[in-house]
Write a structure and sequence with these properties.
By secondary structure, the chain is of the alpha/beta class. The protein has two domains: 8-249 and 454-473, Aldehyde Dehydrogenase, Chain A, domain 1 (3-Layer(aba) Sandwich), CATH 3.40.605; 254-436, Aldehyde Dehydrogenase, Chain A, domain 2 (3-Layer(aba) Sandwich), CATH 3.40.309.10. 41% of the residues lie in helices and 20% in strands. It contains 16 helices and 21 strands. The chain has a seven-stranded mixed sheet with strand order 14-15-16-13-12-18-19, with helices on both faces. β1 (8-10) and β2 (13-15) form a beta hairpin. The chain is globular, with a radius of gyration of 23 Å. The N and C termini lie far apart (67 Å). It binds nicotinamide-adenine-dinucleotide. Nicotinamide-adenine-dinucleotide is lined by residues 146-151, 173, 175-176, 205-206, 210, 214, 225-227, 230, 233-234, 248-251, 282, 382, 384, 410, 449, 453-454. Residues 146-151, 173, 175-176, 205-206, 210, 214, 225-227, 230, 233-234, 248-251, 282, 382, 384, 410, 449, 453-454 line the site of nicotinamide-adenine-dinucleotide.
Amino acid sequence: MSKAPLKSYINGEWVLPATSTETVTAINPATEEICAIVAVCGHDDVDKAVQAARAAFDGYAAMPLDDRIALVEKLIAIFERRYDEMVTAISTEMGAPYDLSFNSQAECGPGHLRATVTAARDMEWERKVGADGLIVHEPIGVCVLITPWNWPVNQLATKIGPALVAGCTMILKPSEIAPLSAQLFAEFIDEAGFPKGVFNMVHGTGPAIGNALTSHPEVDMISFTGSTRAGIQIAKSAADTVKRVSQELGGKSANIVFADADLEAAVRRGVLHCFENAGQSCNAPTRMLVEETVYDEAVAIATKVAAAAKLGDPMEKGPHFGPVVSKAHFEKIQGLIQIGIDEGAQLIAGGTGRADGFNRGYYVKPTVFAGVHNKMAIAQEEVFGPVLVMIPFKDEADAVAIANDSPYGLAAYVQTGDLQRARRVARLMRAGGVSVNGAGQDYMAPFGGYKQSGNGREYGEFGLRDFLEVKVINGFY
Ligand code: NAD
């Protein structure tokens, strides 16, 4: 194995850490082979990156919006030209099956960048207020962007895109578990020709450089996507210097299936959506709440769908599911499945152990529990794997109460043949996004969570506003 350690990108240069000699190995979850070695930065490298971003800020913030947009459009063109490299990087580092990487995971890159450009063109950047005042929007400053591994390009694009368009400068710390897509994204940015210091990337882990980044006095904002656990630490670390902290955190999203839904289609869609990306999506519909009159029928459909779910090689095309991201994550999921069994939930598909037919790779059996009560740990904790729980409910009020009985509030789903009911229930769900009967999310629509699922909003204009300050100049006219 002779992979060169991945370099960080500071002030327009590809660099190895100045003093730190720590490395982390990233593992391909399908083959269990090393796919990258990450050279972990030290506090000195973090400081250099922050100083570079600070030095670049005034000039970049003053660049006309049209010129910033032109650079982002160049970035989109480079991304599109090198699209296949990104698809391979994602499937290699985190195991998303080829079709998912090609159609969704990588597509989020140009998709979000384009949406941000559209939002910037449509936005009212300045407007008159009162007799003589002017409201203006300005970039917030130096931003630290911290991203997870599960939809790596989605999270890179939803942070880097609006920060670049807004006129901010930035330091990205991508997930050490999925560094290949971030490396490639940084190469695209380098090729696009942004001024030196506008974009910087430091590789590393939370314990090594998390605090150095999130407490740095020259940093104005943290945009973080990841676990609620890390989000709490980051918010505390940023508090002493009163930074803006925008957080996209965990979820345990409810999917309410009413008896008047097209049951076969609704249950099938719900099971497959929960298993997509091996269950490693923050907004996965992991709690299926089913009206009790059709509960047994729904359980039978879910059993059939889960039993037919195929697992396979992420590098191959086809409608299969992939492995979960790492050995540690595989083991965490095994522990949670065992907890579900121990607390008396009825296992109707899957279970513990490596999926049949695989002698390597972190393949979790697609798992469904029936007879689940919402107070059980398996219904409350984010598993972040292909594990669905099915919970019966009596009526609409009961369904809403169970759906909202969670520390999280990221996404929610409603399946019904009655649109009036869908609209009523959607308004009662304490979640940042509700989807009715399988509707998808547009790149321009806001994405984010209530409660412990976070506090920011990404995508489109809402994402752009996250990176802007608002100023009023009274007596302007
Ligand atoms: P994680 O919190 O372990 O790590 C996320 C990132 O934070 C990584 O880059 C990691 O190195 C860094 N980090 C960890 N501790 C840190 C600290 N103290 N200071 C600074 N940085 C730190 O999360 P993960 O395992 O990579 O991702 C999975 C989690 O992300 C799940 O909980 C999932 O729900 C959540 N997620 C949320 C959204 C959303 O939009 N709400 C989207 C994707 C993932």
